[in-house]
Amino acid sequence: MLNIDKLLNIIQENYELNKPNGFENIKKVKYLNELDELRIPRNKILICGSATLALYGLRDNKDLDVAVSKDMFKKLEKDKRFKRIFAGSGSKVLNYKNVDIHRNNWPFKNTVEDELKKSLIIDGYHFYSIYRLLEWKKKVNRDKDQKDARMISKFIKDNNIDNRR
After folding, report:
1. pTM
2. How far apart are CA 124 and CA 121, in angstroms?
3. Going from the N-terminus, what domains does the chain have, and what CATH number goes with each?
4. pLDDT over 60 at 17, yes or no
5. Structure confidence by residue, pLDDT tens digits, 83-128
6. Parallel, antiparallel or unpaired: strands 92-96 and 83-86
7. Which of 70, 76, 61, 49 is nearest to 25 (CA)?
8. DSSP symbols for 64-79
9. Fewer CB within 10 Å: C terminus or N terminus of the chain?
10. Closest CA to 57 of 126, 21, 10
């Protein structure tokens, strides 16, 4: 099994992380421009969901799910650009074009701030790691999440990636 340092080498070799513009697959993540239109500091946003899959070249993201702290969410709620919708979990979501902003780190109990400290940072954007996304997909466990979890597990196995340090 590989350790995290070897994983980073694989990513650098296969996904050109060391190019001047960062992780080359960042171009495959849709709707980052819409997120940037909101002018929320990148270090306050955790990009989760299918955007991580797009980042690894596993599949396209159909929207951009992000999580922010409860305080940031309260601030954004005052912004008239957002539609207020409800996620399948029943939680309130702020929608702007193809960007959905969540106010917590559901289904995990830790805070968004805690997750940001462990995130994968590419071009200033904070993404769930592939491992954290796998945990998320297994916890939520909808049909589409089960399919994604199998795909992520295969990717990890095929690349002989181990999450232990």
Report:
1. 0.82
2. 6
3. 23-154 (3.30.460.40)
4. no
5. 999 887 778 999 999 999 999 877 888 999 999 999 999 999 999 9
6. antiparallel
7. 61
8. EEEE--HHHHHHHHT-
9. C
10. 10
